[in-house]
Amino acid sequence: MGRRLRVWCFGSGGRLLNAAGPLLALLLVIAFFAVADWLQGGVGNFVSVGSVRLVGVQSVKVGVAALGMTLIIISGGIDLSAGTAAALSGCVAAYALQQGFGIHAAIGFSILSGAACGLLNGTLISMLRLIPFIITLGTMTIFLGIGKSIAKDGGTIRPPTGSIPSWMDRMVTQFPEPMWVAWPLLPNFGWGVWMVLGLAIVVSLVLYQTIFGRHLFAIGSSEPTARLCGVAVTRTKLMIYTLAGAFIGLAGVVDLARLGKGDATAGLGLELEIIAAVVIGGGSLAGGRGSVFGTICGVLIVRVINQGGTALGLENQVENILLGVIIIAAVAVDRFRQQRLTTAGG
Q: Minimal CA–CA distance to 84: which of 245, 199, 295?
C-alpha cells in the first residue's frame, strides 16, 4: 500500500511538472530576453505588441506541424520527413493553382498530399517493422525529390497572380487588416494563430477523450504490452502517421500563404525545429509522454529565442547554440524523470 501511494504521489507530481515545466521555461526565456533588451536600452523593442504579433505569426507553420508530430512522438515514433513533406504539400497547392483550380481545392490537395506522405511513412514503418528514424530519413529525400520534380524551375513554382486571395495573406501577416479582433486587450494576430489554438483544442480532445488517444499513449509506453491488451497497433500507427501528415500538409498551406509560391527546399531543416518544439515541451523521444500544451509552449520558446536573438543583434549561430543547449537540457530532464519513475515503481 505504501509503495502504491508513493508511486501515485510521484505520478501526480510528474503530471503537474509536465504541464508547468514548459510554461515556466517559456516565461524564463521571455524574462531573459526582456531583461537583456532592457539593459541595452530597449533598442531591440523586444517587449512590445509588435514583437508579440511577430512571434505569433511566425509560430503558425511550426505550430501546425508540431501538433501532428506530438501524436507521432507520444506513440514512440519520429518523422524526419516532416519538413520536406510540408514543402512538397505547398508545391502541390501551388501547382493546383497554376492548373486553374481554386484556392479551396488547392488547400485540399495540400492536406491530402501531406496525409499521403504520412500514410506512406506509417505503412513502411508498420509493415516492414523498421525503426521510424531510418524510414523517415529515406522518405525525407524522396519527398524533396518529388517536390523538385513538380516545381522544376529551380525548385519553386509560382501560382498565377491573384490566385492567392487576400484572406490567405492575413493568415500570417504581422499587421492584419481589418482589425478583426475587437477586444483591445488582445493583440490583433493574423488568423493563423487562432487556427493553431483551435486545432490544439481538437488534438487535446482526441488525445485525452477518445479510445484512439488512449491507444496512442499505450503504444508509446510499451508496444508489446499494447498488442497483448488487444490494441490494433498496425492500424493505429497508420492512423497516427496519416493524421500527422494531414497537419504537415496544412503547414504547407501556411508556407504558400507566407511565401506566395511553392518551394521544394523551404522545408529543409524544418523537421529539427518541429521535433525540438515537441521535446522542449515535455515530449519523450522514448514514447508514452507528451502534451499539446507543452508542444505549444515549446513552439513559442523556439520562436522567442529567434525573436530575442534578432532584438539583441545576436549572430544566428548564437541562437542555434542556445536552442541546442535547451534541447539537450530537455532530453536530460526527461531521462532523469524516467529514472525516477522506474525507481519509484520498483
A: 245
In a domain, 207, yes or no: yes
Which grid cell sits at 158? 509560382
Q: Which of 115, 125, 114, 19 is nearest to 76 (CA)?
A: 125
C-alpha 26: how far from its chain's center?
A: 16
pLDDT digits (tens, 9 = 90+) for 9-21: 333 444 455 667 7
Residue 277: predicted pLDDT: 92
pLDDT, residue 343, reads 63
DSSP structure string for 51-83: HHHHHHHHTHHHHHHHHHHHHHHHTT---TTHH
Q: Does residue 8 form part of some domain?
A: no
The reply to whether 7 falls in a domain is: no
Which CATH number characterizes residue 314's domain? 1.10.3470
Residue numbers of the chain with a pLDDT score lower than 50: 1-15, 182
212-230: burial string, b at 16+ Cβ within 10 Å, e else? ebebbbbbbbebeebeeee
Q: What gap in Å lies between CA 70 and CA 79, rounded to an integer?
A: 10
- Total tally of structural domains belonging to the chain: 1
Residues 261/157, Cβ–Cβ less than 8 Å: yes
Q: Is residue 4 part of a domain?
A: no
Give 185's contacts (C-beta < 8 A, 6+ positions apart): none
pTM for this one? 0.88
Chain centroid to CA 241: 14
With b for 16 or more beta-carbon neighbours within 10 A and e for fewer, the 9-23 pattern comes to: ebeeebeeebeebbb
How far apart are the C-alpha atoms of 69 and 63, rounded to whole Å?
Answer: 10
Q: What is the pLDDT of residue 346?
A: 55
